[in-house]
């Protein structure tokens, strides 16, 4: 059986997009849904909404911006981990310093991608974090900071 047939039998990976910028959410929705294995299940425009939607939807993956109103992504990350423990959190942020990335990973993010990352890299990251076998492996092998290629 081909990989395409195998993929058609699997449920799509559910993605929650959390970003305060409506245009960025729309762009990420288009990018994510380019892949038939991925599906956007919801969106959130601020930290409070991110917690609420993560709790309600229990997505497979959360794309989380750090600079959001009401509560920042760093502020809500631990609470999201608690309320949606099976969700893999990929921080997708305009902050490109290693210290910010390390802080996000220390709080429970699995990956840190900077805005400007190639669309294929975003979708690859989503699929890779879901494919990892165990929670220990997620932090051991996937927790990394990826800057866009120049």
Q: What labels would you give this structure?
A:
single chain; alpha/beta; Rossmann fold; disordered C terminus; 150 residues; 6-stranded parallel β-sheet
Brief rundown of the structure:
It contains seven helices and six strands; from the N terminus they run αβαβαβαβαβααβ. The protein is of the alpha/beta class.
Describe the structure.
It contains seven helices and six strands. It is α/β, with parallel strands linked by helices. The chain has one domain (3-146): Response regulator (Rossmann fold, 3-Layer(aba) Sandwich). The protein has a six-stranded parallel beta sheet with strand order 2-1-3-4-5-6, sandwiched between helices. Helix 3 (47-57) packs parallel to helix 4.
Helix content: 40-55%
Number of helices: 7
Helix/strand/pairing category = alpha/beta
Q: What is the CATH topology descriptor?
A: Rossmann fold
Strand order, main sheet: write it out.
Answer: 2-1-3-4-5-6
Radius of gyration: 14 Å
Q: What form results from the Cα inertia axes?
A: globular
CATH top level assignment:
Alpha Beta
Helices and strands in order, then pairings?
Elements: H1 3-9, E1 13-18, H2 22-32, E2 38-44, H3 47-57, E3 61-64, H4 73-83, E4 88-93, H5 98-106, E5 111-114, H6 119-131, H7 135-142, E6 144-146
Parallel strand pairs: 1-2, 1-3, 3-4, 4-5, 5-6
């Amino acid at each position: 059986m081909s990989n395409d047939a195998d993929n058609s039998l699997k449920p799509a990976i559910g993605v929650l997009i959390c970003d305060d910028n409506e245009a960025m959410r729309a762009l990420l929705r288009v990018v994510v849904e380019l892949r038939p294995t991925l599906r956007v299940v919801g969106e959130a425009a601020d930290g409070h909404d991110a917690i609420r939607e993560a709790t309600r939807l229990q997505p497979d993956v959360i794309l989380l911006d750090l600079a959001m109103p009401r509560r920042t992504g760093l502020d809500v990350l631990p609470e999201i981990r608690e309320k949606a423990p099976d969700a893999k959190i990929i921080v997708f942020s305009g902050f490109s310093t290693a210290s910010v990335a390390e802080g996000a990973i220390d709080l429970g993010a699995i990956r840190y991608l900077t805005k400007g990352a190639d669309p294929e890299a975003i979708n690859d990251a989503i699929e890779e974090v879901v494919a990892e076998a165990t929670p220990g492996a997620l932090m051991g092998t996937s927790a990394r900071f990826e800057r866009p290629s120049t």
